[in-house]
């Protein structure tokens, strides 16, 4: 997975239940990493779907699988202690979920056309 | 519905691939051109000062719970009292700053350069696509769509019998235009990713007014509920130590 190397440089070690010890910039940087990984994975996923020749629903299912893999990969990268890096679960699981769809469709179409249509 | 069309391989080699490659290269070119054209402005000391004050106030707000109540209150007064607080903007000055912002030709100029560097390549590419590749099917999207999308995907072909999932070359250009944004943000850094959409939104707030953000920050600081965290930290430390000992 690309671009996650710097996800370890931030953060507030303690998980306080009552006091928020987050720094906005670090949180933002983490969000950027999530966004990068999602875009990257959606492009790769699009190319894979196209080369495999998936059509219709299968392709979108592959997109959701790719996004789920991204989430799992990011959680693993955060060593399963989400709260050291993000303030809530939604950040890693839902944010930007549909943002890569356009790139996915483009690369899916591109690879599919090149490999299967002509 | 018509059955599958057979597309010529030459279309792939001479339309589909070149079009996409050109779009990517033009995007990269545009990024570097706009980087070159970005003029360096000597920042106005007053604006820099105000920006720093805002950053300091924000830090105070963020870390409010880590200092004792008394220190927090004295700092808050320093920032937001009504006589000479740093965040307090006298009524008359606010108008002034905005008027000056508008009359400064450099800012408008910079704005225009940025927009031109975005619009010119797009118009040129569109004209190029129109001129060379108009009027034939260039691609097929791998999922079915309803008739509603016909005008979007088959821009430039006026045939109602062609299946909707076939894409005309002009529409392939539009697909590229939107879909490549993600790729650009990967290869050029996030700076470029926010270019198109976000800048258009910022355009609404053309005359950015520093005094407005000053008073917004002042309001934010005024409503902070101070709650000193240190006593809680002691409890927490006690709990942790107890757990360790037992």
Automatic annotation (TrEMBL), chain A:
The keyword Isomerase does not apply. It is a multi-pass membrane protein. The keyword Membrane applies. Keywords: Endoplasmic reticulum, Membrane, Transmembrane, Transmembrane helix. The chain crosses the membrane at residues 33-54, 60-80, 92-112. GO terms for biological process: autophagosome assembly; protein folding in endoplasmic reticulum. It is found in: Endoplasmic reticulum membrane. GO terms for cellular component: EMC complex. Belongs to the EMC6 family. This is ER membrane protein complex subunit 6. It comes from Gossypium stocksii.
TrEMBL record, chain B:
It holds the Pfam family EMC3_TMCO1. InterPro entries: EMC3, EMC3/TMCO1. Its main location: membrane. It is a multi-pass membrane protein. The chain crosses the membrane at residues 14-33, 119-143. GO terms for cellular component: EMC complex. Keywords: Membrane, Transmembrane, Transmembrane helix. It comes from the Eukaryota. It is found in: Membrane. One of its GO terms (biological process) is protein folding in endoplasmic reticulum. Belongs to the EMC3 family. This is ER membrane protein complex subunit 3. It comes from Gossypium stocksii.
